[in-house]
Amino acid sequence: MVDEGAHIRLYQAWKQFVDTGLLDRQVVRPVVAESWMRCRARGINPYRLRREDRLTGGELDQLFSQNRALIELSRPFIGELNSFLQGTGFLTALCDADGYLLALVGDEDILHYAAVLGDQPGAYWGEERVGTGAISTCLITGEPLQVVGPEHYFADHHTWACSGSPIRGSGTIIGALAVSGPLSAAHQHTLGMTILAAKAIETAWRV
């Protein structure tokens, strides 16, 4: 459930930061604050998403080929998550270790909205493109993360609640899994589901 008061304070802290660079550390937790500072240092415009870096054609085919094992191993777990989340407005995403989107599964309406934001297979979800987010930031920190509402650096993502977890194989990160949906339906349980699915993929990878 969303705490409206906390949401307002967080938005005010975000607005203050993007306008002035001043950070309210009493409102913004450290992992988000550090990501915001990286985004600002890169000169990212929080009001304008970059969409020009999506892979297509031969580059997209190569991305799928290089990550075929991860995609195939993840497919049943993503399908299971999707069947559980069907009709809720949530979607499930799989990225490679560099942050390129390999798969996006969910209800048709939410997939259409994601496409409007430039989110389709081949899109780059690194912090340089999407700012602070569940997948983009967990790939940097190496830790599971839930990012809600104005914790996202980009204004267009403030209506989302996203949970992400890195996927490891042989000790290194080989990808990341995320479950994203409307802020109004944000719940800590979603992060737990995402972590469990990522761990299941890791087990399948080891086997």
**Count the helices. How many?**
8
How many strands, what sense, and barrel or not for the largest sheet?
A: 5 strands, antiparallel
CA-atom Rg in angstroms: 16 Å
Oligomer: single chain
Structural class: alpha+beta
Strand content: 15-25%
Q: Which of globular, elongated, flat, extended, rod-shaped describes the shape?
A: globular
Largest sheet, spatial ordering of strands: 2-1-5-4-3
SSE ordering: HHHHEEHHHEEEH
Number of strands: 5
Q: Span between N and C termini? A: 38 Å
Helix proportion of residues, in percent? 40-55%
Q: Name the average pLDDT.
A: 93
Low-confidence stretches: none
Which terms summarize this structure?
about 210 residues; alpha+beta; 5-stranded antiparallel sheet; 8 helices; globular
Overview of the molecule:
There is one protein chain. This protein is α+β, with helices and mostly antiparallel strands and 207 residues long. It contains 8 helices and 5 strands, in the order H-H-H-H-E-E-H-H-H-E-E-E-H. A 5-stranded antiparallel sheet has the order 2-1-5-4-3, sandwiched between helices. Helix 4 packs antiparallel against helix 8. It is globular, with a radius of gyration of 16 Å. The mean pLDDT is 93.
Summarize the structure.
The protein starts with a helix and ends with a helix.
Write the layout of secondary structure elements.
Blueprint: H1 4-20, H2 30-41, H3 57-66, H4 68-85, E1 91-96, E2 101-106, H5 108-116, H6 127-130, H7 134-141, E3 145-148, E4 160-169, E5 172-182, H8 188-206
Antiparallel strand pairs: 1-2, 1-5, 3-4, 4-5
Helix pairs in contact: 4-8
